[in-house]
Amino acid sequence: MIYISREKLTCYIVIDDNDKVYFSKLNSVLMERPANVVYCEKDGKLYGIISMGDIARAYRKGKDFVVINKRFTSVKENEYMHVRNIFRNNNKINALPVVNDLNELIGSYIRWDDFVIVNNLTELKENKYVIDFFAKKVALVRPCKAFVRKRQFMQRWKGNLLKAGMEILVIDAKEACDAFNFADYVIFTDEEEKRGIGTLYDNILNKEFNWNKSKTYAEIYDGISAEIGNKIGDQIGYGILKTILSKGVYVFTLNCVGNESNYWKLLKESISDKYLKIGEERLGNGYVYKEFRKDFFAELYSEEYSEKILNHGYSISHTDGISKLKDIDTETYKVTDGERLTLNQPLDFQRCIYFYGPCIVIGTNVADKHTIESFLQARLNVEGYRVKCVNYGNFEDQLTELNRVATTRFNKGDIAIIYIQNKKFDGIPSINLAEVCQKYKVPAAWMTDDPRHSNHKLNHIYADEIFDRIKPIVRKEEEKHTIEVANDFITLGYLERYFHDFIKTHQGVNGAIVMNCNPFTLGHRYLIEQALKQVDNLIVFVVEEDKSAFTFKERYLMVIEGTKDLKNVIVVPSGNFILSQTTFPEYFLKIEDKDIIHNVEYDITLFAEQIAPKLNITYRFVGEELEDRVTNIYNEAMKRILPKHGINIVEIPRARINGKIISASLVRKRLDNREKILELVPQTTWEIIYMENY
Global pTM? Predict the structure, then answer.
């Protein structure tokens, strides 16, 4: 979240009572100062706003003007935490104008924290997973003159990219479209700038803007980081799938990759038309809008039926690092122990078919009897095969999904079918749902925004296609016996990513601290300094879950900047298996439920058995906890468990100021008065919290 003062905002003066603003008038405004929102003022007061989304929607309707939006949310000065809460609770709001008591515009808060990134790419240059990226040509768009610090930021990135060996050209905004012809990427300083320039060219100047080639620095960094994670994840995922395959489990992957055929071009056009007709942008969330329901549910349609299906209320539980759908029992949606109901499962069966994956596997827009699994089960029963279908669908990421695979108690001859988007693995057969749609010329009405968000008719086709692929297997008679799969793979990707050469480069006594840092305070700094007195190297694991007032990127940068003067401190994200939503959800909810002790012990034991030994960690440090009962339960469990694994647990008294504990919660209470927190946080934290005037 960034604050921009009034003089740096993109503004338009309304001089009459006409709320229509013609694109021709916005041309010069956006070319001079591109932004995602234009603030409209009349008689010195904030009159309304025009977002780039407003312009794009007007353009798609064939208009050459946009109507000023006078229904918007504004805030007053000194409402810092209120602004954060609005952004956190409403993803559609990207900017909040700040006004005084006279409704005069004095500034704006912007959602995107593009500047809050650790942007030293040279450290990634030799990473074997992304080395190809640095052979690309990129054009950097020079920010407008009003943004001096944005220009400084661009220069810093230019230096990093040049050091990484990239070919760089710096251009002005008016040259962006031409740059697409020779550059692999055209890079903008932030999302505000990209949206402003993109909309200007696409919808006002009617020049084709290549959104795929357009990136911000944050997107570049995130893309490289994700590429590393994906490739390591693929490596680990391939390992676990090959392992269960070698032990006698048949494995198939599902994916959904379109092509350039005429069918696909027409399908994409039909889907876009559906959304344009109702004035919605294609969101990719699979939601069945009211206008879609009659065609989507077809012969099953009634408003009552569609409401039942679309209000299933999917929610997740976490135990032992495994995510599952929560138990529920309604007329059309039943889940027991993380398994969605598959109708007519046989009691006597030779083998099981286990399904893993997100919406398409769960069957989010259909009743229990219309999931792929239920249709497949019915077909197997009719054909006389003694096979049981099991729906282990879930909404979590691929790594968590693969953890569920690794912890399933398979029998030899079972079948595992896993949805893994856009990926194929050598030696493992795959079923492309997009190709299935093309084969049967499936209409756009049978899906929402793509083939993964399917109706009952399309699920029936998918089930029949899967049946044809597995039929040769289910015909076989096989000896039934349980197989075991080692599950320590869940931390291998994490360790490979952040610590592949740690032991070689960090000799001596190693210690660890796990911190949320919401935000990073002088108390956190004190704890790190005290811990450093007892070890040679200290790893600070920053909790990666975005469940806090400050984003992970913000908190991570706060710790890096707040400790950069300390030698032998290594700051890394905590990943999925250290104090995460997967291992210890109660930490983020601050509740003491029936699973808390079990989840606490799992989280700590996982650290002790799979992470600490591989990093030679023999000390773990914690701050004395006097206020938070959930954190105190965690600390007490560490005292019981870690010494059994040869890890010393050291509790350090909390730092105080004027007799009061320095805590992140105290800082959050004072955030609306920025001067009051200066005594509680490092200067680096203060600057990140109140990032201004970029």
Answer: 0.78
